[in-house]
Amino acid sequence: MTEIENMSFEDAMKELEATVGRLEHGEATLEESIKLYERGALLRAHCDQRLREAEERVERITLAANGQPQGTAPAEGL
Predict the structure, then answer these.
(1) 3-65 CATH pick, 3.90.1200, 1.10.287, 2.60.470, 2.60.120
(2) What is the mean pLDDT of each run of 10 residues along the chain (78 residues)?
């Protein structure tokens, strides 16, 4: 596994935001900007994957006929 694959969603987002900030300020050299962009693309893909995984685990509460919670079921349409 790569370093990015081991990152939590939150850590990857923080680094992605910092990377975007550095690119927006335009203070990096061309070569540094290319490396930042490449890492940012990897971080973005990682965050997208983590979100998809979370969406697949989302469950909705099922209700009994009397309206009381009875359990959970996988969310539909994800």
Answers:
(1) 1.10.287
(2) 89 97 94 97 98 77 72 62
